[in-house]
Amino acid sequence: MVTYIIRRLVGALVMLAVVSMVTFSIFFVVPRLAGVTATDFANRYVGRAATQETVVEVTKKLGLDDPVVVQYGRWVKGIFVGAEFDYGAGVEHCPAPCFGYSFVTKKPVWPELLDRLPVTLSLAAGASVIWLLAGVSVGVLSALKRGSVFDRGAMMIALSGVSLPPFFTGLIALSLFSYGLRITAPGGAYVPLTENPVEWAYSLILPWLTLAFLNAAAYARLTRAGMLETMGEDYIRTARAKGLRESKVIAKHGLRAALTPIVTIFGLDVGILLGGAILTENVFSLPGLGKYATGAISTQDLPKIMGFTMLAAFFIVMANLVVDLLYAVVDPRVRLS
Amino acid sequence: MKKRTLAVAASGAALALALSACGGGDTTSEPSGSAAAPASSGAAGPAGFNAGLDNVTNPSDKKGGVLKMAVTEDWDSVDPGDTYYGMSWNLLRIYGRPLVTYNPAPGAKGRELVPDLAESLGVASDGSKTWTYKLRAGLKYEDGTAITSKDVKYAVLRQLDKTTYVNGPTYFNDWLDLPKDFVSVYKTPDVNTDSAIETPDDQTVVFHLNKPYAGFDNFAALPATVPIPQAKDTGIKYRDHVLASGPYKFDKVEPGKQYTLIRNDQWDQATDPIRKALPDSYEITLGVQGDDLDNRIISGDLHIDVAGSGVQPAAIASVQQDPELNARADNPVTARTWYISLNPDVAPFDNIECRKAVLFAADRVSLQTAYGGQLAGEIATSLLPAGIGGWAKIDTYPTDTGDEAKAKAALTACGQPNGFEATMTFRADRPKEQAAAESLQQSLAKVGIKLTLKGFPTSEYFPAYAGKPSYMKENKIGLATNGWGADWNDGFGFLSQIIDSRTIREAGNYNLGVKDPAVDALVDQAFAELDTAKRDALWGQADAKVMEGAYVLPAVYAKGLLLRGKGVTNQFITGAFDMYDYLALGVE
Amino acid sequence: MTEHFLDVKNLQIHFPTDDGLVRSVDGLSFQLERGKTLGIVGESGSGKSVTSLGILGLHKGGRAKISGEIWLDGEELVSAGAEHVRKLRGKKMAMIFQDPLSAMHPYYTVGDQIIEAYRIHHKVAKKVARKHAVDLLGRVGIPQPDKRVDSYPHEFSGGMRQRAMIAMALSCDPTLLIADEPTTALDVTVQAQILDLMRDLQRDFDAALIIITHDLGVVAELADDILVMYGGKAIEYGTAEDIFERPEHPYTWGLLGSMPRLDREPTERLLPIKGSPPSLINVPAGCAFHPRCVFEGRTGGKANTEVPELAETEGGHLVRCHLPREERRAIWANEIKPNLESA
């Protein structure tokens, strides 16, 4: 077990290294191949008024004229030993892990990521609990009342939930509940949990529901399918033959087995979500990682993009590991080696 | 150079930072509206529509309250030495005082310059090469220390370091008579810079230019003159702790998230005749989704969209349909022109007749529709927008659906009676520019000019493609969508960077086609002319000369559709920025 | 009222489907006493498993339409409430399913599943139930039961799993035990062990045992009575001796002929039954077996028009066949039996 975890962690590190190289390449190598020069890159990060000399100097300052391998090496080095940054009036040391300074805002990336993480965590935590509970219970009920009005209605809503993107449902929800009925917080009203838990929840309830709706729908469908399958299993018949109450048959024998794939997907979904719920955060103007990423991409701010990508990849890789470990706990037939 | 403004791209998912305006930065997008305008637009609609254009709406002297502002994305910087956004120049005056600023008044009156940190406007000498300002007495920073002329000098010199402060304009770099060995305040701190700026005493600052410029007060109004004491300068990190000289100081600085400003108790109303400083505090939320931002202004949860470039398409529709909202809307013409550059480097556009053929054949109404209709812009007849001094209507070319006969005649004169083939670029991620390119493709096809359209991403458009003469020439691209907004609203601020052939650089240009010695000569005359009226007239002549040479096809003068906030007092559009003035605002 | 321990009278279990009514069990009657064993034999789809689930009341609340009577120890179960029957399930009547790998929950240990079965009907501490489970496992012949009690089903061999399944069924000392194909998934030697075990246990528990199988061989040594089912109906019902020594139905002959025996290659079938089991929706007119019956021609044309009665042939031996009794006996004595024996 311990060796397994160690092996997986090493694998995760390799994966992160690969992700970082690919991201770097997408950003640098691909445009270079298309004929974009180092000064063209620098042109993105200078003011409109920049003279050619300025552009050249900025190119040097950002190290954009170095070979990509050197730039990548510098970036990696920053993570492990930190980096130096000339902020004009002096030089600042950016301690490890230093994911570099934004080309645009000149802020070190790592503290900004940490600053945005709680927002995304809050969003992910609330939404995932809601969608898991709602999705699974609707799915179970639908499976048990298969073909009923409830089942058909729920699956219809689930289908729409799966098909409607959050920027649509989110905007509708905002205009309906925040601006129409005025019962929920408007967008951009995020309050940290540590500041005021009640307002925290109030400010997040609509984003939670929006995000949860999207996923709950998928989970309802999954749970329904899983339950229909498990409830037809022989061991369910055995449980009934023992004289077990139907409610216990469903909960202890049916749901337990049907939940296994749900747990797997849930783990991965949460992992992905921790990297930022890009659409939801943008619709509700939540200053989380997803919003950070959109800003970074729109300004082509490489250090930010790299930092965000690494963090998101880290969450996904870790979620995979956790899910695999969890899977062994949930299903005794799975043994890790 | 040009000032940027913010707007959010139209599509629901595209939440990218979008700088409206022409010159725009890496992720620019067109201003405001896209929906078709009602027939009555521009005319006096229901009571209240456009009331903010020429009047102070809801006037009040009541102090107190929180003014709530928001913007779709953070702007470049709150450091006065490192910012090039119109909204930022407008807003920063609540915490920073330049030597001179724009009169907080509605409409054209807002373009008038008034002394701010200085007692009076600049005093010119040495044939407008030397400009002297005297600071008011009793000026203090938020920490209680006195503001001196040395701080103004330091602030101006500091931001000349464009590798550190990449964002701001370069007017001082270009015009100050700097010693040759001066590099930056950081790298060459010991070089004597008195040849550029002198501070004979703590109240006096004297600027020495390398060539005469009669409109230097416009430079003195740049945020670069907001004082910064050398002791407090932390380079690029200064933006985290900008030392207030205005009535408000930063309380919270969370870039990308929010800024809050509270009263600066060291600011003295007696030293400041132009600021009322009504609200107790400002709350500025950053990164608010565009549609949500509009909704919050409509509902009253928010007072002001800092970007000031207009509402999203969804809200435009609401404004058109809802009389109550309509009464809260203003639709100013802004100092921004959308146009199409014709590139004489590429045959057959080296022949003026072929360029004229394009101008005659273009369907201007269709172009206007492409750029968002009547609420979003008026059909342009030249580069210079109507609000700017020196503007005169030029009707050399049709402003309706085009004139095929004249276009064909021009083609014949050009030696291409059957038309020709050409390539046009546009910003692929901007639906309006794509629509404009397609509109032109259709109308030119009628006279036999076949356009091939080629889109490029906004972020690379000026650095690598349409703004790079070598690329355009090599790839034989004769036409490019373009846009430009003024740094300040006079001929110099608007025209100097887009018609003066000597400003064309290796890349990042907004002008490719205007390379005319006659135009350059007029620009030089205008620089030197001390009399404002005469100077304006010269800029007007230059504008006409450009049209005579048929170097550009003007499309529209942009208009913004702005909403006045609920419970906001003293709200009006200032002619200086074509958005609401942020100095006069108060809360009911 | 009835004097039999288990008395099934005219049991009908029908399932309405989109394609029509499926008559899985269509008028079935039989009796069983404690300490006795009944073998229900038939191909898949003959209704034998549906019958067993019907007795346990597992069709209640579903789509099935059930009529007739099931008397167990003086209680009628068809009309009894679902909750009441549930309480009898596992306690008074228990079931051993085929293929214990799928019949046991993969996520719970064998012990947990036995403990659960016990504690449904006995309010005892978990420790007590666990002790009971260990005892049971020991009793069904699982070595080191105190250790194996914590194993998961997939960690057991097939035979061990079946033993565990039996232990689970026995956990509440049931008086009626139904074993549905208890040995199908097992290899031949293990089959014998399991059957021995069941016989021993039945004796110890004095339970009534129903063994459901498609294989007459399984019940040959165990059953006192044998019921042969075809198309949801009994086609022959009698003592084991009746069925093995004096079978009168052509289908039974076929089953006897296809009985795997240790002295034969398992693939060898002497009297193969041609064709496939009938559809339960469109049951063939007349005798349900006639399309597959070799002797159909000797029924005087009644085979496909009249449904034969289940009639007594001799001393409680019941047969559902149009062939005249003498003819059947003659065929058995002259054509079938010599064939089977010579093989």
UniProtKB/TrEMBL annotation, chain A:
Main location: membrane
Domain ABC transmembrane type-1: 117-327
Keywords attached to this entry: Cell membrane, Membrane, Transmembrane, Transmembrane helix, Transport
InterPro entries the UniProt entry points to: BPD_transp_1_N, MetI-like, MetI-like_sf
Superkingdom of the organism of origin: Bacteria
Keyword Cell membrane part of the UniProt annotation: yes
A GO CC term assigned to this protein in UniProt: plasma membrane
Coiled-coil region list: none
Pfam families (UniProt xref): BPD_transp_1, BPD_transp_1_N
SUPFAM superfamilies: MetI-like
Compartments, as annotated in UniProt: Cell membrane
Residues that span the membrane, as ranges: 9-30, 119-144, 156-180, 200-222, 257-279, 305-330
Gene Ontology terms for molecular function: dipeptide transmembrane transporter activity
Protein topology in the membrane: Multi-pass membrane protein
Family, as annotated: Belongs to the binding-protein-dependent transport system permease family.
Name by which UniProt lists this protein: ABC transporter permease
Organism: Acrocarpospora corrugata
UniProtKB/TrEMBL annotation, chain B:
Keyword flag Nucleotidyltransferase: no
Keyword flag Ubl conjugation: no
SUPFAM superfamilies: Periplasmic binding protein-like II
GO cellular component terms attached to this protein's record: ATP-binding cassette (ABC) transporter complex; periplasmic space
Keywords: Signal
Signal peptide: 1-23
Domain (Solute-binding protein family): residue spans on this chain: 112-499
Single biological process term from Gene Ontology: peptide transport
Cross-referenced Pfam families: SBP_bac_5
One of the record's GO molecular function terms: peptide transmembrane transporter activity
Stated name of the protein: Peptide ABC transporter substrate-binding protein
Organism of provenance: Acrocarpospora corrugata
Lineage, highest ranks first: Bacteria, Bacillati, Actinomycetota, Actinomycetes, Streptosporangiales
Automatic annotation (TrEMBL), chain C:
Entry-linked SMART domains: AAA
GO biological process: peptide transport
Pfam families on file: ABC_tran, oligo_HPY
Any single GO CC term annotated in Swiss-Prot or TrEMBL for this entry: plasma membrane
GO function terms (MF aspect): ATP binding; ATP hydrolysis activity
Record membrane topology: Peripheral membrane protein
InterPro entries assigned to the protein according to its UniProt record, in alphabetical order: AAA+_ATPase, ABC_Ni/Peptide_Import, ABC_transporter-like_ATP-bd, ABC_transporter-like_CS, Oligopep_ABC_C, P-loop_NTPase
Record-annotated membrane-spanning stretches: none
Residues of the ABC transporter domain: 8-256
Keywords assigned by UniProt, alphabetized: ATP-binding, Cell membrane, Membrane, Nucleotide-binding, Transport
PANTHER family: DIPEPTIDE TRANSPORT ATP-BINDING PROTEIN DPPD, OLIGOPEPTIDE TRANSPORT ATP-BINDING PROTEIN APPD
Sequence similarity: Belongs to the ABC transporter superfamily.
Protein name: Dipeptide/oligopeptide/nickel ABC transporter ATP-binding protein
Species this protein is from: Acrocarpospora corrugata
Organism lineage: Bacteria, Bacillati, Actinomycetota, Actinomycetes, Streptosporangiales
